[in-house]
Write a structure and sequence with these properties.
The complex is a heterodimer of chains A (110) and B (118). With 110 residues, chain A is an all-beta fold. Chain A is 0% helix and 44% strand. In chain B, strands 2, 4, 5, 6, 9, 10 and 11 form a 7-stranded mixed sheet that branches. Chain B has a 4-stranded antiparallel sheet with strand order 1-3-8-7, with no helix packed on it. The chains are: A mainly beta (110), B mainly beta (118).
Amino acid sequence: QSALTQPASVSGSPGQSITISCTGTSSDVGTYNLVSWYQHHPGKAPKLMIYEVTKRPSGVSHRFSGSKSGNTASLTISGLQAEDEADYYCCSYAGTTTFVFGGGTKLTVL
Amino acid sequence: EVQLVQSGAEVKKAGESLKISCQGSGYSFPSYWIGWVRQMPGKGPEWMGIIYPGDSDTRYSPSFQGQVTMSVDKSISTAYLQWSSLKASDTAIYYCARRDSGWTLDNWGQGTLVTVTS
């Protein structure tokens, strides 16, 4: 069982918005504003989409946004596109040079 | 462009040793911590530990302490993860990732699939 809890799958139609949740504890997500989200196409390197809860790296579409409330972080993808279909993982810093990850969410674009 | 390129897939027998690599380019390799992450089949990623190439300072996750060894050769901008005696339960994809100046793993390698047969 992963340290952070994500839904196993979500789906949406092109143009719609979806939100993926990531629930941790007061020892990780709840304490640190250091949640990141990764897009992963199997066989490729995971790609950083959101860091420090809400920040977008250069080159990442504005359609991707992040937020946090208490022990739960969320990734929202608006204006879904076929290319968004991938696995998404959340990650939180958990203190003493340790990170914890979610189990991953498979996004299907219908 | 920051890149982390990992060594190719490995198939080993239980009890054998193995060393996989992660070569960084496009940035000052000694100046950024490199972390290692395991992803077992059908599971989420797990944090293994992190090493600072500048001085080889290494911090292992308790779950992996004593099970693996992390090292670097900064002269060739390469980090390593090694096992002295593999187990079937070590079968997984192993990723290296660079920690940025804060606490984000900002660039990842493509992963190395390690398959251990019993």
